[in-house]
Amino acid sequence: MYEPNRAPxxxxxxxxxxxxxxxxxxxHRSREEELDIQLAGHLSALLAVTDELRGPAPSADLxxxxxxxxxxxxxLRGGRTPARAAASxxxxxxxxxxxxxxxxxxxxxxxxxxxxxxxTAAILAAERMEAxxxxxxxEQELSTAG
Length: 146
Known about the structure:
Layout: H1 15-21, H2 31-54, H3 60-76, H4 92-116, H5 119-145
Helix pairs in contact: 2-3, 2-4, 3-5, 4-5
């Protein structure tokens, strides 16, 4: 026959009372805070790739994008400035891979920004997606023409 356990197995009591009645030992974040963290992470990664692209292919567009990305990451992280990557000297074939990665990261950032209803970050992410898509198209055009 089954005999119920009469003594609690843990010093705090049964599992059921801990789960339902007491506060947990770890902090919980709201959905908004989780989305902020995700968005800051995607924008930080996009900033790192943008900084990496600025070395071999410097442009005013990439400089401006890097500044705007850094500003958004700082805002999302409560004033903490993001770490910046040193300018790279990537070779030409690697540029298309960097543009592809940046396009993908901008897409992820756009999804999170839209979910979070962050218009400023969403517009920035969409602009970066368009810029990297155009760069990829241009590289594709050059490779087929040559």
